[in-house]
Amino acid sequence: QVQLVESGGGLVQAGGSLRLSCAASRINFSINPMGWYRQAPGKQRELVAAFTSGGSTNYADSVKGRFTISRDNAKNTVYLQMNSLKPEDTAVYYCKWRRVYGIPNDYWGQGTQVTVSS
Question: How far apart are CA 83 and CA 66, in angstroms?
């Protein structure tokens, strides 16, 4: 079964940077990285950054200009570069991949905590 392992979270001061990674393994079928989501305590999970079907990227207005989503196909890894971090970015971040063929199942990483101090 597909395994998604996230890393790179941690504690950082406002204005600092972090890079999140999400590596896929145990892949027995084609999957595509869909994007990154985050969930703060008491709030719903929200989309942060995504790859579009046209090969471009979309970002939430709150992170536009500060976050960059990218991928390394050879390593089956998707990244989220986060710059100029703000306290309101504090949340658990999740990556999502989707099966390409057959039933379009979604697969989620285990989540990684990002805490931004003021």
Answer: 5
DSSP string, 59-91: E-TTTTTTEEEEEEGGGTEEEEEE-S--GGG-E
Task: Quote the pLDDT of residue 27.
Answer: 81
Whether 46 contacts 38, CB under 8 Å? yes
> What CA–CA distance (Å, rounded) separates 118 from 112?
20
Residues in the chain: 118
Q: What is the mean pLDDT of residues 12-21?
A: 98
CA 34/CA 1 separation, integer angstroms:
18
Average pLDDT of the chain to the nearest whole number = 95
